[in-house]
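Quick one:
INPUT:
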């Protein structure tokens, strides 16, 4: 992917598409978006099963866990420049650490949330027509005070760029541009009700196939798209294969990249190419290893299909 080639794709869409609800556009996303930097020296994260925590006391296991944890090779800025606009986020406090600092997490602890938010905000300031979805969907070792701390950091990072809760169908690129808003935050925890800039998690359903079988995955994506609500929500198609514990054991040395993903990405990408955005169509599509193929460009190109339909309607 040429660096920066998709950095301004939303602002570069055909003008007619800026009036379509964002829930009807095809938008590329990444899975476990913040695992590109994982701290091998950190304690194993609270999201791991007890058996793995015991194993992790052995340093070799930590190195192997790192292989399975790092699902994106690109930094935040690189993903944004590559066209990714939806980020799947898991966050945690560090148990035993003084203070309320929150970290991105996937297996091992990653970077401080604040540093990631700053990196995103810098990109958005430089690309004022781009809009992003931050989906805070897993929280570990967090009490209410940790959430309040995190929510305040989100407000501090983005300020007036935050899009307040609105009818999903009202949110178009045009709507956001007029208000100079660029960030939609989805927060899967009851405290969202107290902050107008937090959207409830149920507005961003992301059904998960939980399979290592690519045929089962594609069938699941078809079925869940068919069940998508016609109004009132966005929709995430998680085009990702999930390693089982025995898969991890068998392939620990090679790591995730060389087994599930490399082998099946062509089939997943071919499925993406046959999709159409719009009502009951695909909306956000997430994938592992966004840099292996031109995944983002493939998803973005689907929006041209909306134009064809739009032209047909305006001519008739």
């Amino acid at each position: 992917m040429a660096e920066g080639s998709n950095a301004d794709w939303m602002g570069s869409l055909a003008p007619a598409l800026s009036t379509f609800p964002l829930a009807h556009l095809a938008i590329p996303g990444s899975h476990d978006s913040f695992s590109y930097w994982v701290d091998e020296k950190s304690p194993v994260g609270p999201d791991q099963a007890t058996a793995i925590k015991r194993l992790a006391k052995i340093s070799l296991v930590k190195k192997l866990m790192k292989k399975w944890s790092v699902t994106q090779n690109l930094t935040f800025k690189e993903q944004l420049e590559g066209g990714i606009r939806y980020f799947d986020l898991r966050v945690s406090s560090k148990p035993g650490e003084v203070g309320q600092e929150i970290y991105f997490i996937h297996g091992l602890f990653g970077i401080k949330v604040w540093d990631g938010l700053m990196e995103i905000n810098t990109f958005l300031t430089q690309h004022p027509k781009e809009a992003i979805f931050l989906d805070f969907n897993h929280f570990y070792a967090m009490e209410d005070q940790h959430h309040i701390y995190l929510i305040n950091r989100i407000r501090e990072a983005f300020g007036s760029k935050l899009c307040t809760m609105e009818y999903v169908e009202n949110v178009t690129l045009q709507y956001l541009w007029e208000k100079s808003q660029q960030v939609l935050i989805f927060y899967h925890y009851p405290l969202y009700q107290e902050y107008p800039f937090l959207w409830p998690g149920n507005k961003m359903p992301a059904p998960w196939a939980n399979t290592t079988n690519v045929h089962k995955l594609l069938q699941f994506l078809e079925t869940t798209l068919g069940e998508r609500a016609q109004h009132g929500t966005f929709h995430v198609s998680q085009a990702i294969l999930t390693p089982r514990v025995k898969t991890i054991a068998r392939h620990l040395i090679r790591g995730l990249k060389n087994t599930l993903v490399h082998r099946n990405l062509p089939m997943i990408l071919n499925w993406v190419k046959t999709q159409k955005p719009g009502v009951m169509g695909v909306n956000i599509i997430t994938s592992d290893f966004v840099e292996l193929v031109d995944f983002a460009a493939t998803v973005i190109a689907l929006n041209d299909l909306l134009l064809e339909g739009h032209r047909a309607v305006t001519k008739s």
